[in-house]
Design goal:
The chain is built from three helices and five strands. It is α+β, with helices and mostly antiparallel strands and 184 residues long.
């Protein structure tokens, strides 16, 4: 289990960002495609289309994790139901961590002058779990490894006040306006 991490995360106040956009994603795996399309349109509007590949991969992983693990009792279409444990009287042993009738996943993209943050909010209070795997041919279990590899930083924190759940975020550094790109 990962401890909440806020280091390196700019303030989440959208008013402090130079640009911000968000969208609600439905609880189905097609939402990953919708998140990529939203990210493409947003980055193009912000003249950051050259960052699309890395940002898109990270957005895809964060949204997939939120759909797969952030909505535990509300499975996305196409995924097998996971049985909840019951006691001998048939009552659930675990209370529903997603009591809302329609739990949501929300994607936020926030841009500051020299950084971009992708944040995915889900109703679960469970911390993200990075798996240690040496099987690089496995089709799942490497999402947070990819996020860590492609983003300049990432973390998560629980939501407070009237919001329930958590936010998992990834930070991308942007070149200073007018600065020459060292890759060129």
């Amino acid at each position: 289990m990962l401890q909440p991490l806020r280091q390196g995360l700019p303030p989440l106040d959208p008013a402090a960002a130079s640009s911000a956009a968000s969208c609600v994603l439905p609880a189905r795996y097609e939402a990953v495609r919708e998140a990529r399309q939203f990210t493409r349109r947003t980055l193009d509007q912000w003249d950051l289309g050259d960052r699309f590949d890395d940002v898109c991969l990270v957005v895809s992983e964060l949204v997939t994790n939120a759909l797969r693990h952030g909505l535990p009792h509300h499975r996305p279409a196409g995924e097998a139901l996971r049985a909840a444990p019951f006691d001998s009287a048939g009552a659930p042993l675990v209370s529903d961590p997603c009591p809302a009738p329609n739990p949501q996943v929300r994607l936020h993209l926030m841009r500051w002058t020299e950084r971009l943050v992708c944040a995915v909010r889900d109703p679960s209070h469970d911390s993200p779990v990075a798996r240690d795997t040496d099987d690089f041919s496995a089709e799942s279990g490497r999402g947070l490894f990819l996020v860590e590899s492609f983003a300049d930083g990432w973390g998560w924190h629980p939501l407070a006040d009237t919001l329930s759940g958590k936010v998992v975020w990834a930070l991308f550094r942007l070149p200073r306006p007018g600065a020459q790109d060292p890759a060129n």
